[in-house]
Design brief:
The model is unreliable at 191-205 and 208-219 (pLDDT under 50). The chain has ten helices and four strands, in the order H-E-E-H-H-E-E-H-H-H-H-H-H-H. Strand 1 and strand 2 form a beta hairpin. It has one domain (2-217). It starts with a helix and ends with a helix. The strands form two sheets. A two-stranded antiparallel sheet has the order 1-2. It has helices spanning 2-11, 59-65, 72-78, 107-111, 115-118, 127-148, 152-164, 169-189, 195-208, 213-217, and strands spanning 17-23, 29-35, 82-84, 103-105. Helix 6 (127-148) runs parallel beside helix 9 (195-208). By secondary structure, it is mainly α.
């Protein structure tokens, strides 16, 4: 962690740690800690995608490798988070109440490890609607399935897959479907600036994300 902290400090101006309010268990807000991966700017969407101009020179690497999440071990010690669980969301992204502590990693976090690359196809004005109406329900489905049968051994498996960057076969299939859905979504929203149209198109993409990939690509 010390080496990452030094790298963050030397490669861009600003604090080493990024602090942000997230929603925890039973709707209790808490301050999440991350190594800062972006320049200190006040503008831009809440959702990050690959190629975001706000990323520092090492920010993309920190996010892809998940090294930016290491300070959340402090959140675990504080009792705000657990090692494994659903990822904590921004207040306006948390559409349901968590019954467990949010985790540093989890089933949905593993499946959506390359989320920022998938979102590269989505226009900036539609990112928030895409996150809330398309990605969040899919992430909740994955997390709920895992939590229904979670054990100490399964938690160890999630931690191991986080370190080794491996996915379950079923997750690979789902993410393949999602990627096709996002490509289709970007075509619909490419010229749209109306938030209501964005939400409608994202809702359609959500339904299509459960279809076979060949059906979505054929559109």
């Amino acid at each position: 962690m010390l080496l990452v902290a030094i790298a963050v400090k030397l490669t861009s101006a600003g604090p080493i740690l990024f602090r942000q309010m997230r929603m925890g268990r039973y709707g209790r807000p808490f301050e999440i800690l991350k190594f800062r991966s972006m320049h200190m700017r006040g503008d831009g969407p809440a959702v990050t995608r690959a190629g975001d101009a706000r990323l520092t020179s090492i920010g993309g690497f920190l996010r892809r490798s998940k090294l930016d999440e290491l300070p959340q071990l402090v959140n675990v010690l504080r009792g705000d988070m657990s090692l494994v669980g659903p990822r904590p969301k921004l207040p306006h992204h948390q559409t349901y109440t968590l019954r467990v502590r949010p985790g540093v990693t989890g089933a949905a976090s593993l499946a959506f490890r390359d989320e920022e690359r998938f979102l590269h196809h989505v226009p900036e004005h539609a990112l928030d609607a895409c996150q809330i109406n398309l990605l969040m329900p899919l992430k909740r489905e994955l997390d709920d399935e895992y939590l229904a049968n979670a054990t100490f051994v399964s938690d160890l498996g999630v931690l191991c897959r986080t370190v080794t960057r491996t996915h379950k076969v079923t997750d690979v299939e789902r993410i393949g479907n999602l990627q096709g859905s996002l490509v289709s979504l970007s075509q619909v929203l490419g010229q749209s600036v109306d938030p209501s149209l964005s939400s409608a198109a994202v809702t359609t993409a959500h339904a299509e994300s459960h279809l076979p990939l060949r059906n979505m690509v054929a559109r």
